[in-house]
């Protein structure tokens, strides 16, 4: 089993907790209490290894953050060591995409910086290129009921995602549309990255390059002592 | 049934002091039974109970007070202090000398500070505002400000330096330092919201207040909104210390317990017994709402709310005063990020270290932080903030079963101890109660996964041992710990922990091999008996 840390970021009330609860508990509450600080949930999914066609279990440790945390100084604690980030906006509120963009910028900037530090520890988990960022436009159900409610055009989000090299989907936590697919895509992407890392390490060893530095204990490696 | 409990409480504790000392701190009030045939005083001797657990015999928990009775208790604890005062702002509310402010309506006609205003379409998201179809003043930055300003100076870096300072001067400055963190105004400055932003986020949060169904009622929602708004006005005046907003004729005074505007002269016009808000420009005030306020207020409102009365102003004012009295101690520390971090460093972490070095090491594992660069040291050092934020800001509301929360709040509302110390003591006591879980969940004490710990701490409600947690004992022991902490006699902490806690925990510390052997033996005997 592989274990990955996933963090949800985004403006208040865009539906971060609803997405997590739909994915983990398959429930949806019209009224959900505000997240104070952060919440933690975990869920496992199955993916197919494209080479062997065997099932691989991937466990997500999901950090659901509070959108209104007034000070962003604590945010780095939430996305510390994250392998993936789900940046959520509400497709009925234009401003929430702007907020999502600022989160993407922050992730690219800050996680990138911390990666430089981590590289010294031979920790590849948080390589900036390896942080999987998935942009998600939530509340699709509202737009289906009333198309005029849409404030963020799908094309705009698609273009932004393409430009920034992000994964992107519009979802509905209420109707369960695309929720599992988002996590499935992230899982597959993370697995692909992990396999590439392993291949690279094997290639290095085959070429006689011996990596003498020991890997830092990582929460994301189920074989480590700290898993 | 309800009246019986209330009458019984009133009879037994005719004044506030008795209620606090004999009722709450002695825990006798929680032994009152709803059955009139039983004698509450003939209940179990608390000394015979195991550490922080409910009594095994009888399996009876604590008296479950109805809201009316609990509302009476809380009002007695907080309001009776102010009833005989004439000058305090809160006393003004209680004596009906001051009216609650109405929540202003935001319109395009209003121009704040002569700035240009624009009409914009309202967000569909905030149903209450949008349903009124009010033209709302456009935000200058074009971004909905429900989320924070970006900060450029990382406060953890600052506090990390402070931490080292504290380390060097640990013994001599420990207590001194804990009194020094009331001046983090930078947080306040960046945290401020304008009126529109404030009302948006209040409406959003109130629409998501699910602690009781009554908050779905439009009337209740409107009352909560008004109470919260009045508190935010007071908080704004308090933070900005701007006396020009207030007319200062008549008697003026500073506030003590239950006071609102500590540094502001508050006036009540004695001629018409109404506080003058005429000069108060609600549109230009900075507001400091934070998520969590609404839940604290919600729980208080729930106890004091009277659905049958025709005088709704009365319970609204009472709710405001109780809420504000509590928030006066909580908001400056737990809702201010820099102060919260400093509280963690200078009080909570130090107290935990004194009480249980072993558990302290789990939560503040140096090996975990030592391998990373400076920035990460800072981050890792404060990873406990992730769970502490919710624990402290909501005063255990989401961490413990509601009946236990009520009892803890009873103790908090006596204001016997400063809440910043007492909260740390309460949390330390609960952590000590989780001792076995924490140690068993963590396989290797030298290689602790902080995420595992955070997960445990964010889900303690699900732990079986929490069901048996005796809140009265927790409060009592936390009180003792607070007193010791204040007196700085740290040897007493060790004796408190050894006498009250460690010894009581001994039975669960049986050698696991011995336990396994015993289990096997028991199974063999059972099999042989078959």
From TrEMBL, chain A:
At the top level, the lineage of the source is Eukaryota
InterPro entries from the UniProt entry: P-loop_NTPase, Rab_GTPases_membrane_traffic, Small_GTP-bd, Small_GTPase
What molecular functions are annotated in GO for this chain?
GTP binding; GTPase activity
Region: Disordered, residue numbers? 201-227
Q: Which Pfam families match?
A: Ras
Composition bias, Polar residues: 216-227
Q: Which family does it belong to?
A: Belongs to the small GTPase superfamily. Rab family.
PANTHER family documented for this protein: DRAB11-RELATED (PTHR47979)
- Protein name per Swiss-Prot or TrEMBL: GTP-binding protein YPT52
Q: Which organism is it from?
A: Arxiozyma heterogenica
The uppermost taxa in this organism's lineage are: Eukaryota, Fungi, Dikarya, Ascomycota, Saccharomycotina
TrEMBL record, chain B:
Which molecular function terms from Gene Ontology are attached? GTPase activator activity
For this UniProt record, the keywords arranged alphabetically read as follows: GTPase activation
Pfam family name, one: RabGAP-TBC
Q: Which domain of life is it from?
A: Eukaryota
Enumerate the InterPro entries for this protein: Rab-GAP-TBC_dom, Rab-GAP_TBC_sf
Q: Which PANTHER family match?
A: TBC1 DOMAIN FAMILY MEMBER 5, TBC1 DOMAIN FAMILY MEMBER GTPASE-ACTIVATING PROTEIN
UniProt protein name: Rab-GAP TBC domain-containing protein
Higher taxonomy: Eukaryota, Fungi, Dikarya, Ascomycota, Saccharomycotina
């Amino acid at each position: 089993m592989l274990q990955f840390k996933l963090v949800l970021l985004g403006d208040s009330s865009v539906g971060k907790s609803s997405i997590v609860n739909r994915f983990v508990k398959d429930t949806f509450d019209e009224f959900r209490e505000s997240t104070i600080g952060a919440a933690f949930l975990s869920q496992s999914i199955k993916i197919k290894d494209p080479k062997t066609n065997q099932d691989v279990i991937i466990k997500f440790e999901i950090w659901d953050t509070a959108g209104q945390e007034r000070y962003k100084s604590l945010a780095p604690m939430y996305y510390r060591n994250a392998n993936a980030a789900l940046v959520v906006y509400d497709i009925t509120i234009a401003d929430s995409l702007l907020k999502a963009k600022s989160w993407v910028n922050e992730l690219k900037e800050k996680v990138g910086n911390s990666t430089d530090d981590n590289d010294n520890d031979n920790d590849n988990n948080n390589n900036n290129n390896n942080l999987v960022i998935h942009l998600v436009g939530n509340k699709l159900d509202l737009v289906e009921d009333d198309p005029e409610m849409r404030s963020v055009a799908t094309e705009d989000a698609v273009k932004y995602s393409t430009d920034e090299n992000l994964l992107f989907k519009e979802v509905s936590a209420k109707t369960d549309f695309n929720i599992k697919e988002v996590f499935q895509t992230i899982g597959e992407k993370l697995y692909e990255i992990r396999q590439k890392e392993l291949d690279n390490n094997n290639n290095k060893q085959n070429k006689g390059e011996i990596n003498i530095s020991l890997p830092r204990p990582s929460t994301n490696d189920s074989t480590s002592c700290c898993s | 049934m309800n009246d019986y409990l209330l009458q019984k409480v009133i009879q037994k504790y005719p004044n506030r002091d008795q209620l606090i000392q004999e009722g709450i701190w002695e825990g006798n009030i929680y032994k009152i039974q709803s059955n009139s045939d039983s004698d509450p005083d003939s209940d179990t001797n608390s000394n015979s109970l195991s550490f922080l657990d409910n009594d095994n015999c009888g399996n009876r928990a604590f008296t479950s007070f109805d809201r009316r009775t609990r509302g009476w208790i809380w009002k007695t604890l907080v309001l009776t202090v102010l009833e005989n005062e004439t000058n305090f702002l809160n006393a003004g509310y209680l004596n009906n000398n001051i009216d609650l402010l109405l929540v202003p309506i935001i319109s395009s006609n209003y121009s704040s500070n002569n700035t240009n205003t624009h009409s914009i379409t309202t967000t569909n998201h905030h149903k209450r505002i949008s349903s009124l179809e009010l033209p709302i003043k456009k935000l200058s930055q074009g971004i909905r400000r429900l989320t924070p300003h970006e900060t450029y100076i990382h406060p953890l870096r600052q506090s990390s330096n402070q931490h080292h300072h504290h380390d060097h001067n640990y013994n001599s400055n420990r207590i001194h330092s804990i009194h020094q963190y009331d001046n983090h105004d930078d947080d306040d400055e960046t945290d401020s919201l304008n009126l529109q932003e404030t009302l948006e986020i209040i409406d959003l949060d109130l629409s998501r207040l699910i602690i009781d169904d009554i908050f779905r009622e439009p009337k209740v929602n409107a009352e909560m909104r008004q109470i919260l708004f009045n508190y935010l006005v007071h908080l704004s005046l308090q933070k900005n210390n701007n006396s020009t907003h207030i007319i200062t004729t008549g008697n003026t005074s500073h506030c003590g317990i239950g006071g609102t505007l500590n540094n502001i002269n508050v006036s009540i016009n004695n001629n018409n017994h109404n506080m003058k808000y005429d000069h108060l420009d609600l549109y230009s005030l900075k507001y400091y709402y934070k998520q969590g306020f609404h839940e604290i207020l919600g729980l208080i409102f729930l106890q004091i709310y009277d659905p049958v009365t025709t005088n709704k102003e009365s319970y609204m004012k009472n709710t405001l005063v109780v809420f504000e009295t509590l928030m006066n101690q909580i908001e400056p520390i737990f809702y201010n990020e820099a102060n919260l971090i400093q509280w963690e460093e200078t009080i909570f972490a130090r107290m935990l270290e004194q009480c249980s070095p072993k558990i302290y090491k789990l939560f503040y594992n140096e090996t975990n932080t030592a391998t990373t660069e400076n920035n990460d040291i800072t981050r890792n050092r404060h990873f406990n903030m992730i769970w502490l934020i919710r624990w402290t800001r909501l005063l255990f509301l989401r961490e413990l079963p509601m009946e236990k929360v009520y009892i803890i709040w009873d103790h908090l509302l006596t204001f016997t101890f400063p809440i910043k110390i007492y909260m740390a003591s309460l949390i330390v006591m609960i952590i000590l109660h989780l001792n076995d879980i924490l140690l068993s969940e963590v396989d290797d004490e030298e290689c602790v996964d902080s995420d595992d710990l955070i997960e445990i701490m964010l889900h303690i409600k699900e732990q079986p041992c929490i069901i048996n947690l005796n809140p009265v004992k927790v409060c009592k022991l936390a009180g003792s710990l607070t007193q010791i902490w204040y007196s700085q006699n740290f040897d007493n902490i060790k004796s408190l922990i050894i006498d009250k806690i460690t010894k009581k925990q001994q039975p669960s510390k049986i050698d696991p091999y011995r336990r396994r052997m015993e289990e096997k033996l028991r199974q063999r005997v059972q099999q042989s008996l078959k």
